[in-house]
Amino acid sequence: MERNLTHIALFAALIAVLGLIPKIDLISGVPITAQSLGIMLCGTVLGAKRGFLAVLLFVALVAAGLPLLSGGRGGIGLFVGPSAGYLIGFPFAAFVAGLVVERWPVRVSVAALAGSILGGIVVLYAFGIPGMALTLGKSLPEAALLATPFLAGDLIKAGLAALITQAIAQARPGALLSRTAPRGAVK
Amino acid sequence: MLTLTSPVRTWAHSVSAWVKLATLCVWTLVLMRLEGVWLLGAALLVLGLAASGGRGFLRHWLAMLRPVWPFAVLVVLWQIWLGNIWAAWPILARLGAAVGLANAVTMTTELAEILALLTRLARPLARFGLKPQVLALSVALVIRFVPVMLLRYAQITMAFAARSPRRAGWRILMPVLLATLDDADRVAEALRARGGAG
Lengths: 187, 198
Known about the structure:
Largest interface: A-B, 59 and 69 residues
Order of helices and strands of chain B: HHHHHHHH
Structural class of chain B: mainly alpha
Number of helices of chain A: 8
Largest sheet of chain B: none
Largest sheet of chain A: none
Radius of gyration of chain A: 16 Å
Number of helices of chain B: 8
Strand content of chain B: under 5%
Helix content of chain A: 55-70%
Strand content of chain A: under 5%
Distance between the termini of chain A: 5 Å
Oligomer: heterodimer
Number of strands of chain B: 0
Shape of chain B: extended
Radius of gyration of chain B: 23 Å
Shape of chain A: globular
């Protein structure tokens, strides 16, 4: 129970850290934040329920006013602004990513890649695009157009999430709670 | 820990967080309906509220709006491209009035007060096994783990730089994660030794 708790807190902190480290150039020149990589990893490593809780914890702290989002952003203003949909979708993205890794009994790297794409891209965009459409007064297709420049970066991040999940599975198999913990146990 | 609460005390600091959040919810819903001159008035009202906190507060408030600027520029460019630049201002006024008031609430509410409010709101979740004390502990753990992880990142980056002329890049994430996973395990052991997490 304590271990689940500390791992959930650790991965919530990981999302924050990925936004605070400016030096990680995923691909040089393109300023993409690595925070959605953290969301994907929460799901693929912790599993659906715990990943959901970890990201929810992170989002709650952002709402409370800690400047944990990339660029030192935070506060309730984000939840009524253009990125509101993404913030609300974050926990669900992690949940779906975790669900795929838990339920699809293939190699960890394959399941993590599929989960990251389905959760961290499909589900996340499904929340983020309507959010942008609503706050910017655009139609859904127009808002979807605004999101497409980030697609390439997010696909790279899904690949990285798969590699990192695989590395954790090899080096610390016990920490891969999405595969080792008894299903349905939160704490 | 760095927070976004304004160091400049204003009258709004002494208003209860519940009142401020409820006002914000109503405000955001009302904004969705407003049109025309009313919308402009709403945006000016929020600006006036921010200005009532004094010059230092106003400057901080304007700086907090910075993340919205790229979107504002985008909306204006989009409307120019559509050939109707005047259609941009209601969108911008609505966005500015919503984000502006929400930022003002964040800036005038202590972190402890908001966390207390969140804990209160999460109380019904106790039925599903999420006890309030576990929530409080996990908040403390996240706030502690952020600097721990940054420290591990700095250490491993230095170790890499001492051995290679190349930049570490994303590869550094794996050892950082493995090291901090071990840290998290040790914290879990310590919690268990002290009688568990509640």
